[in-house]
User: Fold these one by one.
Assistant:
Number 1:
Amino acid sequence: MTNYLVTGGCGFIGSNFIKFIMGFSDTTVCNIDKLTYAGNPLNLLEFENDERYSFYRVDICDKKKVETIFKSRKIDIVVHFAAESHVDRSILSGIEFVKTNVEGTQSLIDVSRDYSVQQFIHVSTDEVYGSIKEPGKFTEKSELHPNSPYAASKASSDLMVLAAIRTHDFPAKITRCSNNYGPFQYPEKLIPLMVSNILEGKSLPIYGTGANIRDWIYVDDHCEGIYSVITKGRAGEVYNIGGRSEIKNIDLVHKIADELGVVPTIDFVKDRLAHDERYAIDFSKISKECDWHPNIGLERGLKNTISWYENNTGWLDKVKSNEYITYYKAQYEKS
Ligand code: NAD
Ligand code: TDX
């Protein structure tokens, strides 16, 4: 048996990753999640009665509670997803980003060292590198140049993990992935927000001119990338993960509208502060060392994603709670 402890497993990527590894019968999963606005236990309802799965509603910053969990069971591999993850929210207020992303990560490192885990996978982001002009791509050696409070908190957590590797020979690996999309993504991020607004007949807020470029990866490809790093990656290393799907925001939004068969009403709104112009990932290291590459192109991935949201409007309505309405007003309807 391989016993995983996954943090943030009720969020978007964490829940997709748990579904993926629960597909291996020799695996147990212990999911620790605080259930912030972004955490939804309904995402994992299928494992409610599965003896290989357990869930604890715990804040990763609460070291005592986390220790109790490590004490009560054997943990082989920690996969750390828990984070405040949305750039726009970090611009509204940064403090929770420092608490969870920096303090929470350090606390988890400390407990994982105390209980001698075999591996610690720190799930990070390409945003730590900042923005890059064409035709450049970020490699694992690119300078860290975070521009948003979110990116700065993730870069800080990466540095804490790297320090633990160098100081304590901590058996960690860091993955830095580009923009994910797919089922179960909270509708604050670009793709599900646009799909949700189209389904509601609302206009589509595009920051600035819509010329910013992102590299999109279907969430299943990211999960397989992380798994390949667990099974084939070297301890102490950083691995970039990318989707090979760069596109301008405005072109992506038109593709979504076309797929849904509507003529979109686009609202060019005030630009995001310190808006990164372009992300582009060189993922040759993970390809060579872990034999991984993305499988699902943007066309197929978008079709899957859009039809998932169309077929799961109940899920969407539930997550668009009072908190979402308050956030949406603060972010998009401020004068
Ligand atoms: P998400 O916001 O959907 O989920 C985050 C989860 O963490 C939620 O379930 C939330 O309840 C939980 N959480 C938050 N604070 C916590 C705390 N203090 N203690 C315990 N649980 C807590 O995020 P996501 O999009 O699934 O991202 C997961 C990870 O992947 C993050 O670390 C993020 O930085 C990274 N990442 C995301 C993307 C992307 O495009 N979404 C790309 C690259 C890397
Ligand atoms: O309403 C919007 N309008 C708009 O034009 C939103 C929500 C976004 N955008 C633009 C901003 C970005 O250029 O779309 C692009 C994508 O925005 P997000 O979905 O917020 O993603 P991004 O800021 O690129 O960060 C994402 O990728 C890296 C994730 O949110 C991070 O968690 C991950 O680390």
Number 2:
Amino acid sequence: MASSSKRPRSGASDTPAVPDEKPAATGVREAGEAVPHVRVAVIGSGFGGLGAAVRLRRAGIADFVVLERADSVGGTWRDNSYPGCACDVPSHLYSFSFAPNADWPRSFSGQPDIRAYLEKVATVFGLRPHLRFGTEVLEARWENEETRWRITTSAGQWTADAVVSAAGPLADPQIPDLPGLSGFPGKVFHSSRWDHEFDLAGKHVAIIGTGASAAQIIPSIQPRVAKLTVFQRTPAWVLPRRDREITQLEKWLHGRLPLTAKVRRGTLFALRELQVDAFVRRPGLLRLVQQLAERHIAQGIPDPSLRAKLTPDYRIGCKRILLSNTYYPALAAANTEVVASGLREVRGSTLVAADGTEHQADAIVFGTGFHVTDMPIGARVFGVNGTSLAEEWKDGMEALRGSTVRGFPNLFFVIGPNTGLGNSSMILMIESQLNYMIDALTTLGSIGAAAMQPTARAQRQWNLELQHRMDRTVWTTGGCRSWYLDPNGRNTVLWPGSTTSFRRATRRVDLGEYELIMRAAPAAARTVQEVSA
Ligand code: NAP
């Protein structure tokens, strides 16, 4: 059995310790210089990528880079700077368990505070030497002979034993392909690419979509614009948002007595875990919640015809439930018009709805979501047969335990297929996947294997069971079409269980579910690259 320990790697020990710093490989080289090699290349520096970096360091693995296409950390919390952007999961739960923040200003903190938190995590945990900004991954290709990944980026190449894809599902904006859009004379942008230079005051603004992003944008811009036209293809269920400032006393207590912060987090966690059964096994229980939402519409929308337009015809929970106290008042405002139809076409400055009605606009804001079931990173990653992940997933995304994919050795996903949540904090799922990834890497090191990939049987079995459970969930039975479903109607996005059950499922790597790949030969070419790493 060939051992990967032949190669000297700084800090690559099995003892969990913060490793010594070493000059991290830059990827930019002089002509003729060898490609730098790292043990792990992490793609993305949002919650997933930064979490991976912290966990790698804690596992004693210092030989890694975090490749980030933008010029700062934060992922979706960097990109989404639209007015009103905030998280609808309480901050004390929507944060890393290993990085509690006693200073959260509100129960549901806003984007600037979440972004600042991630910047602080990057600094406090010593991640900055590993970050490579302006480095977009263009291709990651598995090299069978060398048992490693070759990663081509906009700022040079790296090779790596393992790749952690933390590119995130909410990274690449989706704008519908509408006839005439390119001829629109006004301003056009997506919610996650907000143009802060553009002054909306006094303008006729059209917002397309009524998902979680649009529901935060609408009340934030409605008082400023002359007219707001909301194109609503499908109404959302909306519940009141119990947001408030965190008092100085609470902050002081959480800072001085960390146990109080733990109790708070534990309570938030437990309340959400208790809701899971209603979403995944007994959607009938959600009827009571739906009644609360119906009361919320009745209170917020006095006009019966507008109320009818805004009332969904599917069960609550089937699509993401929105939390807002300001959405309905903004829709009921005199300068807002709700068009209960999708946007079909653009003719000059006229927007044509699917119902044939025509509406003038100076600016279009697309709140139309992201490429989730067709993650763009999939087209850039090539596995053992030279096929891309996108090709592998042409009939739908699937992985083993949301983390690894057959044919793509040593590729670990953070927020991979079927790891999303409808009701709790994604950070819990991210941390479970990080446990799994670290266990895989340390296991490989301890048994002397170069790489691992799931067996076909294990991956098939995992997904059969998962999809069987999905059949009973509100996302399948609730009578809606959501972005959780792929074009074949299969939910490849959400986890049909509690976060606790996912934590259990990812606690340890089961080698019975994997094929191990041994290093073929101690290739001389590699030694050259190791030296440069
Ligand atoms: P989204 O939930 O995918 O919503 C996209 C919206 O665009 C839907 O209402 C969709 O209608 C509509 N749409 C698409 N094409 C259209 C067309 N041609 N005409 C009219 N409407 C059209 O996207 P999102 O709002 O950006 O949210 C994505 C996810 O980000 C959320 O589900 C959540 O996970 C996360 N997020 C969270 C928060 C938070 O924590 N508060 C905030 C923002 C986002 P259909 O429903 O008919 O498809």
